[in-house]
Amino acid sequence: MNPSPTFSLLAPRLPIFGCPVYDLTWDGALSFVNELASLPMGQTHITFLNANNANIMLSDRSFRDVLGRSVVLPDGVGLDIASHMLNGEKFVANLNGTDFVPALLTYMVTPRRIGLLGGSPEVLDAATAGFQRHAPWHRFVPISDGFFDKEDSSEVLAALDAEKLDILLVGMGTPLQEKWVDRNIQTRHARVVMSVGALFDFASGRVPRAPSVLRSLRLEWAYRLWLEPERLWRRYVLGIPVFLYNVLRYKLSERNAAGGKSTRPQHPARGGKA
């Protein structure tokens, strides 16, 4: 599951804790994924890196290895802070999955068969119906909820074999979803596989989106914390300071390794910000 080799050489990437993250405008990212879905063969696993996932990556080597075999897109203001401190520049666009996937579905004019895997049965059905209303020229197929045996996924894989999908959306939470995809999904199952986290909760209407003003200020995380403090306090109240500490520690380790010299990466010129 590797991205197009030609594109990999040309697309700028900024490393976060050593993990290359694609630095693309919205138009560039939408065009890229649309082309991947149009290829007659091959497969690409696309996932999104945010501050929480980056913290996990530092302590989970197998998760880091999976990300190294994937196309990783930047999600959230935390990645901008980290990239500014580590690379001297922030990402040109916030390509969070909650906004990027619906935009991609609209961007793709060629009808596609798109499978959904994960969530509770109720959320899965509601998300499938929501996506079908959002982009009715595509065909959305609920493959399975997320309550299946992750060690023996033969029934789910058989269902995927039967559906002949173009795109598979997997929403089972990080790092479970990325590891499961990397271990189980083959090229015959779908050309593009996207690990989408909590996207189905939003698409189903179970969790409301933040008001547009908060989203424009990139404060949806604060709105989510306000809605679900018991479930998310550890991720945000504890996770954000830990992430900033990890960024500072990584910056100091890079500086020490370079003998005090800048290690800012060089990459091709980019287009304007989205």
From TrEMBL:
It holds the Pfam family Glyco_tran_WecG. It comes from the Bacteria. Keywords: Glycosyltransferase, Transferase. One of its GO terms (molecular function) is hexosyltransferase activity. CDD domains: Glyco_transf_WecG_TagA. The keyword Glycosyltransferase applies. PANTHER family: PTHR34136, UDP-N-ACETYL-D-MANNOSAMINURONIC ACID TRANSFERASE (PTHR34136:SF1). This is WecB/TagA/CpsF family glycosyltransferase. It comes from Rhizobium daejeonense.
